[in-house]
């Protein structure tokens, strides 16, 4: 997060026009893009992103209500008020949940700095963010949803729904890969979460692409029905709802 704050400060994000003109340390646009790309790759790399939240966050689940804020701390550039004492802050700071939350906020902050120029970095972080938005922990999912909203705003889009619909082909291709080769591991679980979110935000132009994802989902369910039935059923429910909203296009999916 320190690196993100350095980039944000060097770019003059949040400074008034007068203060920015007095800003002595400037960073070129190309340097800003390269630094942001390196940070996005670092944050979303498997060793830093695919962490076992459910196993390691433990007692923090009972504190989920404390994370229900309306702004990202990284974007607001203010310390979290709900963390209480320094001892409690230190305890939370070293948890997996806090690490993920900081990384998620970092992605949103970089989008805020780059604005529309964040577009080339969208695909590398869109799938991971949507996956975290489906986490069972409110601490993670709520932060991911706020980040998606901030990124949509930075790119000039009305809502995260437009992020999904504009990139549905990429998302479903990644989902198919995850369902085919991820099995019941982390990759397979991430694919199911992203598929469910994509289906919930589908529109007319995305439905023809869903046929392959639906077939992959049913094939994966046939293989892993005894281990991940609940997660698969939630994705199937989202598929049924998507089809129900567009019954006139059912023939595209079924034939």
TrEMBL record:
GO terms for cellular component: cytoplasm. It holds the Pfam family TTI1. InterPro entries: ARM-like, TELO2-interacting_protein_1, TTI1_rpt. It comes from Eptatretus burgeri. This is Uncharacterized protein.
